[in-house]
Amino acid sequence: MVEGAVSGNIEIKDVDKVFNAGEEGEVVALRGINLSVRPGEMVALVGPSGCGKSTLLRLVAGLEAPNAGTLALDGNPIDAPHYERGLAFQDPSLFPWLNVFGNVASGLKARKIFDKDDNEVQSYIEKIGLAGFENHYPHQLSGGMAQRVSLARSFVNHPKVFLLDEPFGALDAFTRMYMQDELLRIWQEDGTTSMLVTHDVDEAIYLADRIVIMTPRPGKIEEIIEVGLRRPRARNVEEFLHLRARILETLHFAEKLQELPYYL
Amino acid sequence: MKPLTRLLLPYLGAAAVIVNYYFVPDDSILSKKPYLLVVTVAIAAVYTAYWLIVRAAKSPKFEKIAYDAPKLLALFLAVAVWDILILKTHVLPGPFFQDITRILGVYIEDGLQLVIHALYSLRLLFTGYFIGLGAGFLTGVFAGWFARARYWIMPIVKLIGPIPATVWLPLIIIIMPTLFAGSVFTIAFGVWFPATLMTATGIMSVPSKYYEVAQTLGADNRWLLFHVALPSSIPNLFMGAFMGMGISCVALITAEMLGVKAGLGYFINLSTAWAEYNKVFAAIVVIIIVFSGVIALLFKANSKLLKWQKDSIQW
Known about the structure:
The complex is a heterodimer.
Chain A: E1 10-20, E2 26-37, E3 42-46, H1 53-61, E4 68-73, E5 76-77, E6 85-88, H2 100-110, H3 120-127, H4 143-155, E7 161-165, H5 173-190, E8 193-197, H6 201-207, E9 210-215, E10 220-226, H7 238-250, H8 255-263
Parallel strand pairs in A: 3-8, 3-9, 6-7, 7-8
Antiparallel strand pairs in A: 1-2, 1-4, 4-5, 9-10
Helix pairs in contact in A: 2-3, 2-4, 6-7
Chain B: H1 3-23, H2 35-56, H3 61-88, H4 100-145, H5 147-160, H6 169-175, H7 179-204, H8 208-216, H9 221-258, H10 264-273, H11 277-305
């Protein structure tokens, strides 16, 4: 939690989301979701595939509408996408026809507040360590570089909420850890409320203030865990491993280990 | 083969052309004009100067020249074989087939006329082509972006589009006020179909993630159209432009052969009527050069505009 953040309070109340899956009938993606995210907080959503964590993020982004319940940001109902709620996917989804500078500037240009004498875009390119790559096109970038551009493209808009859908899922282990530190650094500077969808339990513990554990069929919140570790966090201390065991247990991945002694 | 050896191959071909034409006996009663000698020596001289300069500049293009040298040899040999088949052995009968010197003679004696006809052709081609491309782009954007426009436009495109543009020509020539307008319309119509179809499918197949990202960045609908849908579908538009160029060239020559009183197609028709088949061959060569030049220009524009693409089409 970044202290002093005043805006970026997300309220999710009794949200249901149902998808029409053709012949299979209806699929309940989310049922009775209640979640409140405080300003400046970083919340991680973890759970197996099909638990609706990405759907929940898309609802907050305004890309989907709930079938029941309400979502609000700072008291204003969420009914459409808005630059106050920035989004980054696992696929960096950079605009391939724009170079790095064009991509980072695209938010400001879309909002018609781009000022070419202002070096805000340039400063974000420097912040993500890609100075000198301004004129490169996305196909010339590595996966990690592309993802950094994707993050900068959202950050430069100064959203109140930052929604991250497995942003580092496609990166190799070392790049991922490096990117996690990058994200933490920028998050602590800007104090933007963040919701992070991940299937990596370690990533959730390392980054988040609270971890929302979700389970599928229908997608619902199983448990919310306060991480409570001081930053910078070490990945190998006892509390970290303890939290990890507890989360895996909630997700029913740790049972077999406990049962093991009975068979021996 | 060593690059230098490869470089020398075309000289063999040039020698074969000259020796064959001027020194191998034949039953021609006409005096041998020096055109073939001049042109062959000129080509060899330009070629020599080119590779000498490139080699002196230590440019990497030198390897490329050496690599392509056998093709120049093949061109010279083809000329020699052509002359053997027609002039020396009469395997291919005159007057329908004419030796290279008589074809070269057209450029030297009637060169200006050919240039003027080529310019007429280009004027007709580009007028029709760009009108058709622009109209196709507009209808394609409408059909791709607005579902209601798509509902009405796509059936028309699917019904009328695949019909060869030249089918309409006889009708259009009667209906339209001038032959030029009629021909422009025919060419434009032929381009309009692929341009519409490719632009529309390009816009419809923009990955939704780009729209979603743009929306969360603060884009309105207008921005989505002009800054996401359009740039994203430019590769498709070029596909339509290439397909349209092929159709235009066919429509152009047909129009000129059917009624237009100028242009390379008309020139071919006229020369056939006068049994001047050397002019027919000369005009065909000009058509080859003009059309492949136009396509090459299109590819240049393509790779300049689409430098952001990883694998754009190569020419």
